[in-house]
Amino acid sequence: MSVDLTHPLVADYLHRLETAAAVLPATRRGDLVAEIREHLTDALAGTEQGADGEAAVRAVLDRLGTPDEIVAAEGAGGGGEPPASAIQPAAPPSWRPSPPGPAPGRAVWGPVEVIAVVGLTLGNFVLPVVGPVIGLACVWVSSQWSRREKVVATLWGLAAPIVLALLAMAALLAFRVEAGSGATVEQAPQPVVSEAFAPQSSEAFVPQSSEVVAP
Amino acid sequence: MALLQHRPRYGFDIVRELSEADGLLTSEGTIYPLLSRLRKDGLVTTTWQASDAGPPRRYYLLTQDGRMALERFVADWRRFRDSVDRVLGSTPTPVPAAGALDVR
Question: Which of A67, A112, A137, B63 could link A17 by a cystine bridge, Cβ 3.0 to 4.6 Å?
Fold first, then answer.
Protein backbone atom coordinates (compact mmCIF):
# COMPACT_ATOMS: atom_id res chain seq x y z
CA MET A 1 0.00 0.00 0.00
CA SER A 2 1.41 3.34 -0.95
CA VAL A 3 1.69 6.45 1.19
CA ASP A 4 -0.95 9.13 0.75
CA LEU A 5 -2.04 12.26 2.60
CA THR A 6 -3.49 10.20 5.44
CA HIS A 7 -0.02 9.07 6.57
CA PRO A 8 0.33 10.26 10.20
CA LEU A 9 3.40 12.42 9.48
CA VAL A 10 1.73 14.03 6.47
CA ALA A 11 -1.55 14.56 8.28
CA ASP A 12 0.30 16.17 11.18
CA TYR A 13 2.21 18.42 8.78
CA LEU A 14 -0.99 19.52 7.01
CA HIS A 15 -2.60 20.21 10.37
CA ARG A 16 0.34 22.41 11.40
CA LEU A 17 0.22 24.15 8.04
CA GLU A 18 -3.46 25.01 8.50
CA THR A 19 -2.73 26.37 11.96
CA ALA A 20 0.16 28.50 10.71
CA ALA A 21 -1.87 29.70 7.73
CA ALA A 22 -4.62 31.02 10.01
CA VAL A 23 -3.07 34.51 9.70
CA LEU A 24 -3.61 34.57 5.92
CA PRO A 25 -6.75 35.84 4.18
CA ALA A 26 -9.28 33.00 3.83
CA THR A 27 -9.02 32.60 0.03
CA ARG A 28 -5.24 32.51 0.02
CA ARG A 29 -5.21 30.13 2.98
CA GLY A 30 -7.43 27.67 1.10
CA ASP A 31 -5.28 27.96 -2.05
CA LEU A 32 -2.01 27.49 -0.21
CA VAL A 33 -3.19 24.37 1.61
CA ALA A 34 -4.55 22.98 -1.67
CA GLU A 35 -1.24 23.70 -3.45
CA ILE A 36 0.78 21.98 -0.71
CA ARG A 37 -1.59 18.99 -0.72
CA GLU A 38 -1.15 18.73 -4.47
CA HIS A 39 2.64 18.96 -4.10
CA LEU A 40 2.65 16.22 -1.46
CA THR A 41 0.44 13.98 -3.59
CA ASP A 42 2.97 14.26 -6.43
CA ALA A 43 6.04 14.01 -4.19
CA LEU A 44 4.77 10.92 -2.35
CA ALA A 45 3.56 9.09 -5.45
CA GLY A 46 5.18 5.66 -5.54
CA THR A 47 6.36 5.78 -1.93
CA GLU A 48 5.53 2.50 -0.19
CA GLN A 49 4.59 2.17 3.45
CA GLY A 50 7.15 0.74 5.86
CA ALA A 51 10.45 1.80 7.37
CA ASP A 52 11.85 3.05 4.05
CA GLY A 53 8.59 4.82 3.32
CA GLU A 54 8.77 6.57 6.67
CA ALA A 55 12.23 7.94 5.87
CA ALA A 56 11.07 8.99 2.40
CA VAL A 57 8.08 10.85 3.87
CA ARG A 58 10.37 12.65 6.31
CA ALA A 59 12.70 13.63 3.48
CA VAL A 60 9.80 15.02 1.41
CA LEU A 61 8.52 17.07 4.36
CA ASP A 62 12.05 18.31 5.17
CA ARG A 63 12.53 19.53 1.64
CA LEU A 64 9.20 21.25 1.72
CA GLY A 65 10.25 23.41 4.69
CA THR A 66 8.32 24.04 7.89
CA PRO A 67 4.75 25.39 7.76
CA ASP A 68 6.00 28.55 9.49
CA GLU A 69 8.62 29.12 6.79
CA ILE A 70 6.07 28.74 4.01
CA VAL A 71 3.52 31.02 5.63
CA ALA A 72 6.25 33.60 6.38
CA ALA A 73 7.13 33.60 2.66
CA GLU A 74 3.54 34.62 1.92
CA GLY A 75 4.16 37.91 3.68
CA ALA A 76 7.72 38.55 2.51
CA GLY A 77 8.37 40.81 -0.43
CA GLY A 78 4.72 41.25 -1.46
CA GLY A 79 2.65 44.32 -0.65
CA GLY A 80 -0.17 43.91 1.79
CA GLU A 81 0.88 42.26 4.97
CA PRO A 82 4.33 42.82 6.49
CA PRO A 83 6.15 39.57 7.30
CA ALA A 84 6.14 40.10 11.06
CA SER A 85 2.36 39.93 11.26
CA ALA A 86 2.34 36.80 9.14
CA ILE A 87 4.79 35.02 11.42
CA GLN A 88 3.20 35.96 14.70
CA PRO A 89 0.06 34.12 15.78
CA ALA A 90 -3.08 36.17 15.33
CA ALA A 91 -3.37 37.04 19.01
CA PRO A 92 -5.38 40.18 19.67
CA PRO A 93 -3.13 43.08 20.71
CA SER A 94 -3.82 43.52 24.39
CA TRP A 95 -1.91 46.44 25.90
CA ARG A 96 0.26 47.41 22.96
CA PRO A 97 -1.41 48.99 19.96
CA SER A 98 1.26 47.69 17.58
CA PRO A 99 3.65 44.97 18.77
CA PRO A 100 7.05 45.98 17.41
CA GLY A 101 8.23 42.41 16.78
CA PRO A 102 11.75 41.58 15.67
CA ALA A 103 12.18 44.53 13.24
CA PRO A 104 11.36 42.85 9.93
CA GLY A 105 14.01 43.06 7.21
CA ARG A 106 16.54 44.60 9.54
CA ALA A 107 18.27 41.35 10.41
CA VAL A 108 18.25 39.95 6.87
CA TRP A 109 21.54 40.26 4.96
CA GLY A 110 21.45 40.02 1.21
CA PRO A 111 24.23 39.84 -1.39
CA VAL A 112 24.60 43.63 -1.32
CA GLU A 113 25.55 43.61 2.37
CA VAL A 114 27.95 40.72 1.91
CA ILE A 115 29.66 42.45 -1.04
CA ALA A 116 29.87 45.65 1.02
CA VAL A 117 31.67 43.99 3.91
CA VAL A 118 33.92 41.82 1.73
CA GLY A 119 34.74 44.78 -0.51
CA LEU A 120 35.73 46.97 2.41
CA THR A 121 37.87 44.31 4.08
CA LEU A 122 39.33 41.68 1.74
CA GLY A 123 38.69 43.99 -1.22
CA ASN A 124 41.68 46.10 -0.17
CA PHE A 125 44.03 43.19 -0.79
CA VAL A 126 42.36 41.42 -3.70
CA LEU A 127 41.41 44.45 -5.82
CA PRO A 128 43.14 47.54 -4.40
CA VAL A 129 41.08 50.71 -4.89
CA VAL A 130 38.39 48.91 -6.94
CA GLY A 131 37.35 46.52 -4.15
CA PRO A 132 36.73 49.16 -1.48
CA VAL A 133 34.95 51.42 -4.00
CA ILE A 134 32.53 48.61 -4.84
CA GLY A 135 32.15 47.93 -1.12
CA LEU A 136 31.29 51.56 -0.39
CA ALA A 137 28.81 51.69 -3.28
CA CYS A 138 27.07 48.64 -1.82
CA VAL A 139 27.04 50.20 1.65
CA TRP A 140 25.15 53.20 0.27
CA VAL A 141 22.77 51.09 -1.81
CA SER A 142 21.86 48.82 1.12
CA SER A 143 18.95 49.63 3.39
CA GLN A 144 20.48 47.65 6.25
CA TRP A 145 22.45 50.56 7.69
CA SER A 146 21.48 53.99 8.91
CA ARG A 147 22.82 57.14 7.27
CA ARG A 148 25.13 57.69 10.21
CA GLU A 149 26.58 54.19 9.92
CA LYS A 150 27.10 54.73 6.20
CA VAL A 151 28.99 57.99 6.81
CA VAL A 152 31.21 56.30 9.40
CA ALA A 153 31.88 53.42 7.00
CA THR A 154 32.79 55.86 4.23
CA LEU A 155 35.15 57.88 6.43
CA TRP A 156 36.87 54.71 7.62
CA GLY A 157 37.01 53.37 4.09
CA LEU A 158 38.74 56.58 2.94
CA ALA A 159 40.86 57.00 6.04
CA ALA A 160 42.47 53.56 5.92
CA PRO A 161 44.30 54.01 2.57
CA ILE A 162 45.31 57.57 3.47
CA VAL A 163 46.79 56.47 6.79
CA LEU A 164 48.55 53.61 5.02
CA ALA A 165 49.91 56.01 2.40
CA LEU A 166 51.20 58.41 5.07
CA LEU A 167 52.83 55.56 6.96
CA ALA A 168 54.45 54.28 3.79
CA MET A 169 55.75 57.77 2.94
CA ALA A 170 57.10 58.28 6.45
CA ALA A 171 58.87 54.92 6.31
CA LEU A 172 60.36 55.72 2.93
CA LEU A 173 61.57 59.16 4.04
CA ALA A 174 63.18 57.70 7.13
CA PHE A 175 64.87 55.09 4.98
CA ARG A 176 66.20 57.67 2.52
CA VAL A 177 67.59 59.93 5.22
CA GLU A 178 69.35 56.94 6.75
CA ALA A 179 70.69 55.67 3.43
CA GLY A 180 71.76 59.14 2.28
CA SER A 181 73.44 60.12 5.54
CA GLY A 182 76.90 59.74 3.93
CA ALA A 183 75.99 61.73 0.83
CA THR A 184 73.80 64.80 0.44
CA VAL A 185 70.05 64.41 0.78
CA GLU A 186 69.39 65.94 -2.67
CA GLN A 187 71.05 62.97 -4.33
CA ALA A 188 68.59 60.52 -2.82
CA PRO A 189 67.16 58.36 -5.61
CA GLN A 190 63.64 59.71 -5.48
CA PRO A 191 62.91 59.84 -9.25
CA VAL A 192 63.58 56.12 -9.56
CA VAL A 193 60.80 55.33 -7.13
CA SER A 194 58.18 57.52 -8.70
CA GLU A 195 59.06 56.47 -12.24
CA ALA A 196 58.90 52.84 -11.32
CA PHE A 197 55.41 53.09 -9.94
CA ALA A 198 53.85 55.99 -11.79
CA PRO A 199 53.06 54.27 -15.11
CA GLN A 200 51.43 51.33 -13.39
CA SER A 201 49.22 53.47 -11.30
CA SER A 202 48.10 55.87 -14.00
CA GLU A 203 47.47 53.20 -16.62
CA ALA A 204 46.11 50.41 -14.54
CA PHE A 205 44.09 52.05 -11.87
CA VAL A 206 42.59 55.26 -13.14
CA PRO A 207 40.57 53.76 -16.02
CA GLN A 208 39.51 50.95 -13.71
CA SER A 209 37.81 53.14 -11.20
CA SER A 210 36.03 55.18 -13.86
CA GLU A 211 34.74 51.97 -15.40
CA VAL A 212 33.33 50.87 -12.11
CA VAL A 213 31.42 54.10 -11.61
CA ALA A 214 30.02 54.19 -15.13
CA PRO A 215 27.43 51.35 -15.09
CA MET B 1 9.33 32.35 -14.55
CA ALA B 2 11.92 31.26 -17.07
CA LEU B 3 10.77 27.69 -16.53
CA LEU B 4 7.27 28.67 -17.69
CA GLN B 5 8.61 30.28 -20.85
CA HIS B 6 7.96 27.40 -23.21
CA ARG B 7 5.13 25.45 -21.62
CA PRO B 8 2.81 25.50 -18.62
CA ARG B 9 3.99 23.44 -15.66
CA TYR B 10 2.48 22.20 -12.41
CA GLY B 11 3.87 22.98 -8.97
CA PHE B 12 5.84 19.83 -8.23
CA ASP B 13 7.29 19.89 -11.76
CA ILE B 14 8.62 23.44 -11.20
CA VAL B 15 10.06 22.44 -7.83
CA ARG B 16 11.81 19.40 -9.28
CA GLU B 17 13.42 21.46 -12.01
CA LEU B 18 14.56 24.21 -9.62
CA SER B 19 16.00 21.67 -7.19
CA GLU B 20 18.25 20.35 -9.93
CA ALA B 21 19.77 23.81 -10.33
CA ASP B 22 21.95 23.82 -7.23
CA GLY B 23 21.28 26.42 -4.58
CA LEU B 24 18.19 28.09 -6.04
CA LEU B 25 15.63 26.57 -3.73
CA THR B 26 16.05 25.92 -0.01
CA SER B 27 12.49 25.27 1.20
CA GLU B 28 10.48 23.84 -1.65
CA GLY B 29 7.19 24.94 -0.16
CA THR B 30 8.08 28.63 -0.46
CA ILE B 31 7.66 28.38 -4.25
CA TYR B 32 3.87 28.50 -3.74
CA PRO B 33 3.78 31.89 -1.98
CA LEU B 34 6.06 33.15 -4.77
CA LEU B 35 3.77 31.83 -7.51
CA SER B 36 0.83 33.36 -5.67
CA ARG B 37 2.51 36.78 -5.69
CA LEU B 38 3.32 36.47 -9.39
CA ARG B 39 -0.34 35.61 -10.00
CA LYS B 40 -1.50 38.58 -7.93
CA ASP B 41 0.81 40.84 -9.97
CA GLY B 42 -0.66 39.47 -13.19
CA LEU B 43 2.60 37.89 -14.38
CA VAL B 44 1.45 34.29 -14.08
CA THR B 45 -1.94 32.64 -14.42
CA THR B 46 -3.21 29.16 -13.58
CA THR B 47 -5.33 26.58 -15.36
CA TRP B 48 -6.59 23.17 -14.36
CA GLN B 49 -5.56 20.17 -16.37
CA ALA B 50 -6.41 16.52 -15.86
CA SER B 51 -3.50 14.37 -14.69
CA ASP B 52 -2.82 10.74 -15.59
CA ALA B 53 -3.26 9.67 -12.01
CA GLY B 54 -5.27 11.37 -9.31
CA PRO B 55 -7.16 14.67 -9.29
CA PRO B 56 -6.60 17.46 -11.87
CA ARG B 57 -3.50 19.58 -11.37
CA ARG B 58 -3.06 23.32 -11.25
CA TYR B 59 -0.77 24.43 -14.12
CA TYR B 60 1.04 27.75 -14.10
CA LEU B 61 1.75 29.73 -17.27
CA LEU B 62 3.16 33.15 -18.10
CA THR B 63 0.89 36.02 -19.10
CA GLN B 64 1.90 38.60 -21.72
CA ASP B 65 3.02 40.91 -18.88
CA GLY B 66 4.98 38.01 -17.40
CA ARG B 67 6.79 37.43 -20.67
CA MET B 68 7.75 41.10 -20.87
CA ALA B 69 8.91 41.15 -17.23
CA LEU B 70 11.02 38.07 -17.90
CA GLU B 71 12.63 39.65 -20.97
CA ARG B 72 13.44 42.79 -18.99
CA PHE B 73 14.93 40.76 -16.18
CA VAL B 74 17.05 38.67 -18.54
CA ALA B 75 18.41 41.83 -20.20
CA ASP B 76 19.13 43.49 -16.83
CA TRP B 77 20.74 40.34 -15.50
CA ARG B 78 23.04 39.95 -18.52
CA ARG B 79 24.11 43.58 -18.26
CA PHE B 80 24.84 43.20 -14.55
CA ARG B 81 26.72 39.95 -15.11
CA ASP B 82 28.82 41.47 -17.92
CA SER B 83 29.71 44.48 -15.78
CA VAL B 84 30.86 42.28 -12.93
CA ASP B 85 32.77 40.01 -15.32
CA ARG B 86 34.48 43.03 -16.86
CA VAL B 87 35.56 44.38 -13.48
CA LEU B 88 36.81 41.00 -12.30
CA GLY B 89 38.41 40.00 -15.58
CA SER B 90 40.27 43.18 -16.53
CA THR B 91 41.84 43.85 -13.16
CA PRO B 92 45.66 43.74 -13.13
CA THR B 93 47.45 41.50 -10.68
CA PRO B 94 47.48 43.39 -7.38
CA VAL B 95 50.46 45.71 -6.99
CA PRO B 96 52.18 45.59 -3.58
CA ALA B 97 50.13 47.92 -1.43
CA ALA B 98 53.02 50.12 -0.24
CA GLY B 99 54.26 50.69 -3.80
CA ALA B 100 50.83 51.57 -5.16
CA LEU B 101 50.09 53.97 -2.36
CA ASP B 102 53.49 55.61 -2.39
CA VAL B 103 52.79 57.41 -5.65
CA ARG B 104 50.23 59.73 -4.11
Answer: A67
